[in-house]
Amino acid sequence: YVPVAPKTKTVKDSTAVNKKAPKMSEDQFEILFKKVAEGSKVKDDFADFMCDDLDIPVVKNDKDLITFAQLCASVKGKKIKIESIRLNKDKQTNCIKGLNISYKVKKFMRWSKD
């Protein structure tokens, strides 16, 4: 009889690597978001920056609270002029967790809040 060390289960490190979102400035976000309004981009193009959570809360024009997916649907096909954007990011992962946006929509040759 030869003593054999019992098989040890190999356990992978439980420290999962947090997926870091690519850096995005407010200006870059504005450019990409305007393309959503034009129809050349879709909400899914923001998935990397939001860590695949497209239902982040958005404060629209300082009064309405909607999800990012609803915001994209509401501006699609409209001509918009963005007045201000503030991104709320997670410090560790750089993911966008919230968004404040103020913009106007062109209706009948006039700019008005949506």
What brief labels describe this structure?
2 helices; 114 residues; 18% helix; elongated; 5-stranded mixed β-sheet; alpha+beta
Explain what the structure shows.
- With 114 residues, the chain is of the alpha+beta class.
- The chain contains 2 helices and 5 strands; from the N terminus they run αββαβββ.
- The protein has helices at residues 26-38, 68-75; strands at residues 57-60, 64-67, 80-89, 96-107, 110-113.
Radius of gyration: 21 Å
Percentage beta strand: 25-35%
Strand-pairing-aware structural class: alpha+beta
Overall 3D shape: elongated
Order of helices and strands: HEEHEEE
Helix content class: 10-25%
Poorly predicted parts: none
| N-to-C CA distance | 82 Å
Counted by DSSP, the helix tally is: 2
Task: List the topology elements.
Elements lengths: L25 H13 L18 E4 L3 E4 H8 L4 E10 L6 E12 L2 E4 L1
Parallel strand pairs: 1-4
Antiparallel strand pairs: 1-2, 3-4, 4-5
How would you summarize this macromolecular structure in one to three sentences?
This protein is of the alpha+beta class. The protein is built from two helices and five strands.
